Batch of 2 targets.
Target 1
Amino acid sequence: IVDKTGNVTNATAIDGKTTEHQVLNDTALAMVKGLPKFSPGRQDGEAVNVKMVLPIKFKLTDDK
């Protein structure tokens, strides 16, 4: 959720494909929580909370 002030709140990982790779979920959440402020959503000229989904893709390689 991007709140009325533009801060990210209640960030969660929702993609079930990565549940076996908790480190990926944790990394994605840390990245999202570290993002700069967003411009808050507006409805009828008033700032409002907005629920949004931010897709994050990881490319895993087998570097040896």
Target 2
Amino acid sequence: MTLSKRIALVAHDARKDDLIAWAKENSQALTDHDLFATGTTGKWIQNQCGLFVTRLKSGPLGGDQQLGAMIAEGRLDMIIFFWDPMAAQPHDVDVKALLRMSVLYNIPSACNRATADFMVSSPLFSGPYE
């Protein structure tokens, strides 16, 4: 990984507000990185946080699979995915596949605010990593 990371930001509907609040608080740290997000999440991050985000398809329409492909192709360095553990998702299989890819390819993944805080505050976040 280079100094500038390629970071996916994803959130289920019930967790979008949490991710937006987190992104606002960490917007300075995120500015120097290439951000990717699924559909509505990306739109909200751009509009509410002022960060440039490359938007993919909505999760249920293939966005999670696009992120999985990016991982497999070596085009994504980390993922911050605030998923909702209390609600069944119509695309649950895609979510599981995305998380599987992140583990398989050793991609740092945060599924909650505490883990995302640890990731962004690590010296590795803004430095190289082999």
